[in-house]
Amino acid sequence: MKNLKKLLGLMVVSVMALSVMGTANATTCSGDACHVKATIVGSKNGSETGTYGELDDVADEIAARYATEKITKVDITLLADTELATKALKTNNGVNGIDVPVTINLAGYELDITTATGAISVLKGGTLTINGSGTGSQVSTTSVSTASVITVQRGGTFKTSGKVTYVLSTTNDTFVKVDDQNGSGRATVTTDASTIVESAKVAFDVSGYADVTIAGNYETADQLVVVANNSSKANASVINVNATATSTAAEVFSVSDYAKLNVNGGKYTADAADQNVMTINNPSAVVINNGTFVATSGTAGSNGYAIYLGTNADVTINGGNFTSGEDATHEYLPALYVTTMAENKGVVTAGTFNYGMVATSTTSGTHGNPDADKNIADLVAKTSTYTVNKENGTVVVKAGAATDPEKDPETKPSTGDDQPSENPKTFDAIGSLVTMAISSLGVVGTATKKLFR
């Protein structure tokens, strides 16, 4: 009898606890009607796991709990395709956003974010992680009302994990926007190599105070990365990219305000008429360590180049393969366009520049004459060597002891693949001569580096 009373007492306590912990949304679905499982952790009533009809019901459950306690963590797993249709996903009272760790496990299903909900905002202290597992994990939108699907404020974090495909609206939707007007500290955005973004207008709209790491495969109408709203050098975002991206209507990269953009590999294609792959203007700082940059068409003006360097653009190219588009006469433009050579801050230490290396306002639309082009000599670092394909003007730059290609008997034309025939003996011989000279003199030489202004 005592044990029975004790059991009944525990049952009463359990029922009371459930009534305090939230609404009845977790029990309003059954069987196939349950599309979401969620675990909500609060400061007073602990952890509660339940199944829900839609993600909107999870948002209601969270709201019922944060009315009386602080939410500390939310884990969501899809059990079927679902949508966030009428509710905003938020974890605090009065602010429309996420300020705690929130994970959405798509688990092979689709999450549809519709116009009514607008963007998911990640606030200071908040982390949104979207995971994909199996096949079919997808986030889709129908032109969200704020034009950005994920907004990350200063102090917030957004990251992807596993294979997730984001299918957006090219008319309006930006995949991720960094908002530097709210919060404090730095925003963090990280996408992994399994991330796929289709049909976005812009993939990453980055202001200041952000650390952004971009990997994966992106198809955009406009830019993969746009930086146009940060006038403070001290607040410059750091953006590291190693991805595959194609823009169908604009340049892939557009940087016109302070940012530190590092491209470490990948392939970037401007697949639209008369578009540069990368347009860089003062005062941005860009380092290209590797990657393939291809423009599909160009003009005799300043459009259709692999890299466009505006006045005072601070660009260092340490490697990569660069091809500009063809002009109206079906001639390939040189790989780089430099607005003002007299004020140029760019430098090239290595890379392959197909069909000519540099055009200016007076030489654009032609291959130029790379053998005697002072502009090439001015761009190439003093510690690097460049060779020229006599047939098509392709310039190959390698880090190493400088030499004069006009006097280099080993420089040979292309063998038919539009790339110069490179003879490693040239560089080995030069290295040996330099080593012998240093040894005979008994001194240690220090290579002079090109001074960055």
Description of the molecule:
A hairpin with a 6-residue loop joins strand 31 (384-388) and strand 32 (395-399). The strands form three sheets. This protein has a 22-stranded mixed beta sheet that branches. It is elongated and about 80 Å long. It has helices at 2-21, 55-66, 374-379, 424-441; strands spanning 36-42, 46-52, 71-78, 82-84, 101-105, 110-113, 120-122, 127-131, 138-141, 148-154, 157-161, 164-167, 174-183, 187-190, 195-200, 202-205, 210-220, 225-227, 237-247, 253-255, 259-270, 278-280, 285-295, 307-309, 314-317, 321-323, 336-338, 347-348, 351-353, 358-359, 384-388, 395-399, 412-414, 420-421. Helix content is 12%, strand content 39%. The longest helix is centred in the N-terminal third of the chain and has 20 residues, at 2-21. The chain has 453 residues and is mostly beta strands.
Q: How would the blueprint of this fold be written?
A:
Blueprint: H1 2-21, E1 36-42, E2 46-52, H2 55-66, E3 71-78, E4 82-84, E5 101-105, E6 110-113, E7 120-122, E8 127-131, E9 138-141, E10 148-154, E11 157-161, E12 164-167, E13 174-183, E14 187-190, E15 195-200, E16 202-205, E17 210-220, E18 225-227, E19 237-247, E20 253-255, E21 259-270, E22 278-280, E23 285-295, E24 307-309, E25 314-317, E26 321-323, E27 336-338, E28 347-348, E29 351-353, E30 358-359, H3 374-379, E31 384-388, E32 395-399, E33 412-414, E34 420-421, H4 424-441
Parallel strand pairs: 3-5, 4-6, 5-8, 6-9, 7-10, 8-11, 9-12, 10-13, 11-14, 12-15, 13-16, 14-17, 15-17, 16-18, 17-19, 18-20, 19-21, 20-22, 21-23, 22-24, 23-25, 23-26, 24-27, 25-28, 26-29, 27-30
Antiparallel strand pairs: 1-2, 1-3, 29-32, 31-32, 33-34
